[in-house]
Amino acid sequence: MSKNTKLSDSDGVLLVKTARQAATEFLSNGNRIKLETEHEKKFSFDSGVFITLNKPDGLRGCIGFPMPEKKLSHVIIEGAIAAATEDPRFPPVTTKELDDITFEVTVLTPPVEIDVSNPMEYLTKIKVGRDGLIIRHSFYSGLLLPQVPGEYGWSVEEFLQHTCNKAGLEKDFWKSGKAKIEKFEGIVFKEETPNGKVVREKTYGS
Q1: CATH number 3.40.140.10 is the correct assignment for the domain at 3-109+185-200
Q2: Which of 41, 64, 104, 148 is at a distance of 20 to 30 A from 167, taking alpha carbons?
């Protein structure tokens, strides 16, 4: 079991507060915060992570690092800044908006390729609410986090279709047998209200 699956609720509070502080400090002063030594040591393992910013009317930014290639202590700060300033779908967040935004941190387990002999087996090897998906083919790739299909009420097949679309592929490309499909799990911590209580989101089996 990797370290990122053992995160405590207090670890989650610290990660979300760090994400908010990192975005706030960067937007206010252009500075990148540095974690205290004990916290840097606590999160010194490599991990994928996504930072999601939400407003009452919907998504305000989401940027992440799906592969466990850098230390969580580093990517939590970089991801928070990027979610606030670099999501190409939105203009950069302003400091005035921060009081209306909730921060959400999803720490990822390492992606594992789903082994099938027939593409229809994907339907029984993926669980909505537990698994996130990455679909790759040639230079196309798409990723959706574990919480996304639950938010929209998708079936496993719809989840696969939307991940194909995210990759720029035909929605039923997953049936072709040509795609590499990986799954991962996410540990989700989020503010209930802007700058409010941080909770661990219930996922499948939790």
Answers
A1: no
A2: 104
